Amino acid sequence: MQERLSDYRARRDPALTPEPASDDPRGTGVDGRAFVVQEHHASSLHWDLRLEHEGVLVSWAVPKGLPAAPGVERLAVHTEDHPLAYARFAGTIPEDEHGGGWMRITDVGPLEVARWTADEVELTLHGAVLQGRHRLRRRPDGGHDHWTLTRLDPPTDPDHEAVPDAVAPMLAEHGDPPTGDGWTYEVKWDGHRALARVVGGRLALSSRGGHDVTASVPGIAGLGEALAGRDALLDGELVVLGPDGRPDFGLLQQRMGAPRARGPRVTYLVFDVLHLDGRSWLHRPHAERRGQLDSLALAGPVWATPPALPGRAEDVLAAVRAQGLEGVVAKLGSSAYTPGRRSDAWRKLVNLHKADVVVGGWQPGAGRRAGMVGSLLLGVLEQGGLRYVGHVGTGFTDRELVRLGTQLKTLSRTSSPFSGAVPAARARTARWVEPELAAEVAMAGWTGDGLLRQARWRGLVDGG
Question: Lower Cβ count inside 10 Å, N or C end of the chain?
Fold first, then answer.
C-alpha cells in the first residue's frame, strides 16, 4: 500500500495541506468496501470518484459529474491513488498545493465490485444520492489516464427528467395594476432576457432568440459552480448598471458587442426557476418557484437574485418610480410558467412618461392589420427641422386605425419630411406624409441616442 501511495505523498506537503496523511489508520468510515464522490473546485471544477480497492482509494476526476441516465458517457481521468481516510475529507486545499481549491463530499457509501481489470471496472454504488450499476472503461486511444464512465442502470428515480436544451421564455402583457391578493412584484429591468442552463456544473446562457451569449458575461461560469452540482434551468435578465446604479440599455448594447472591453460589467439577474434536480418546475405555481429560487441564495460577482416586492401595486410602482426605475412586473402567485406565450398572469406596469410628437410617415400593416396602418413614424420639431425619434405600433383601436388611414392618405408625399436619416429598415417600406398631425404617446423614457423607448399610442391632439 505504501508504494501505491508514493505519488500521493510526493505531490503533497503534510505541513501545508489539511488533507489526510498517507498512513492515517482510521479508514473510510464506511462499513465494508466504500466509494466517495467529492466536488472539487480546483483550477477547473470536477467531481472526484474514488473507489476502495486493495487498501487505497483508486481515483478518477470526472469533469461533468457522474451520469444520471443510462447510456450517457462521461470522460473520467485516472489520477493518483489516495489513502482510505480521504473518503472523509472536505475542506480547502491551499492554492499553491496540488489540487488547490475547496472540496466537499457529495456522496459516500458502500461499494460492490463485479469486475476489476486493468482496463475495466464494473461496480454498483449504494450511496444516499448515487445508486445503481456503473462501468469504467479505459479508452483505447486515451493512454493510461483517459477512461469512460457510463451508467448501466436506469435512474433510481423513475420521474427524473434531463434539463431541456431550450425553453422559450414566458412573456408579460401590458396591463392594469392588479387588485386582490396573491400578486407579487419584481422590478422591470431594462436589459436582455436570458436563460441559464446548468448541467454538471457547466453553464450556458442563451438569449430569447436561442443564441448563445455566455461569452458576453465574463465570470458567469461561477454561477454554475455556485449551484454545487445541482442541474438547473434559470430565467433572468442581463443588465448593465450605469454610474447612478440604474440599468442602462445603451451601455448594455455596447458591452454585449464587446464583452471583454473595459467598462461596466454585465450582470445576470435571476428571477425564476424552470428546472431543478431532475424535475420540471414549469407547472408549479409562481409562488413556489419563487420560494425555491430564494432558497438557492444565488449571489455572486456577476449574478444576483433581486427581491420580490410585496404590497399594493400603486405603492410598489411609486417606490420604483422614486428610484428612477422603469416599472415593475406583477406576477400572480398561483400561475404556471407558459413557455413562449404572453400571459395576463404576468403584467408589465411601466412608469410611463408622455411625449408630444408629429407623424411623418407610416408603414403598412400585415396579418390582422393588412390594408391598414401597421405603425407610425414619429418626430419632434427642433430648430433644424423634424427629428426622427422612433415609431409606435401599439395602443390603437381598430376605429383609430381606419380613421388614421384616411387622414394619412390625404397627406401623402414622395419624400421624407425628417431632417435626418430614418433607419433603413423603416425607410424601405415607409409611406411619407406631410408633418401636420400632432399626437401624444406614452413611453418608458428616452434612449441614449434620443429615441422613444416602448412607445404606446395615446391619440391625436390639437384637433388632429
Answer: N
End residue of a domain, out of 303, 320, 349: 349
Tell me the β-bridge partners of 174. Answer: 348
How far is residue 319's CA from residue 349's CA, in Å, rounded to a whole number?
A: 13
Number of domains the chain contains: 3
Same domain, 65 and 205: no
Cell of 2: 505504501
Summarize the confidence of residues 407-415 as an average pLDDT: 95
Range of the domain at 368: 353-460
Which helix (H) or strand (E) element contains residue 62? strand 56-62
Are 325 and 376 members of one domain? no
Q: What is the pLDDT of residue 462?
A: 56
- For the four alpha carbons of 147, 153, 156 and 161, in that order, the dihedral sign comes to positive
Q: Are residues 225 and 132 in the same domain?
A: no
Asked, for residue 156, whether it belongs to a domain, the answer is no
Q: CA–CA distance from 453 to each of 150, 216, 389, 448 (Å)?
A: 52, 24, 9, 10
H-helix or E-strand spanning residue 147:
strand 146-151
Residues 344 and 363 in one domain: no
Residue 2: the pLDDT is 63
Dihedral in degrees, nearest 10, Cα atoms 141, 147, 153, 156: -140
Rounded distance between C-alpha atoms, residue 201 and residue 163, angstroms? 12
Residue in 262, 256, 240 with CA at minimum distance from that of residue 191:
240
Lowest mean pLDDT among 99-108, 115-124, 154-163, 420-429: 154-163
266 has which bridge partners? 240
Q: Transcribe 308-347 into DSSP letters.
A: PB-S-HHHHHHHHHHTT--EEEEEETTPPP-TT-EEEEEE
Instruction: Please check whether residue 1 lies inside any domain of the structure.
Output: no
Residues for the chain: how many in total? 464
- Whether 17 and 58 map to the same domain: the answer is yes
CB 55 within 8 A of CB 1: yes
Bridging pattern class, strands 303-304 and 266-276: parallel
User: CA–CA separation, 123 vs 115, rounded Å?
Assistant: 7
Which residues are designated catalytic? 188
Task: Indicate if the pLDDT at residue 464 is higher than 60.
Answer: no
- Residue 162 in domain: no
| pLDDT tens digits for range 73-83 | 889 999 999 99
User: Which of residues 349, 370, 398 is at a domain's end?
Assistant: 349
pLDDT in tens, 88-128: 999 999 998 999 999 999 899 999 999 999 999 999 999 98
Cα separation, 421 vs 425, in Å, equals 11
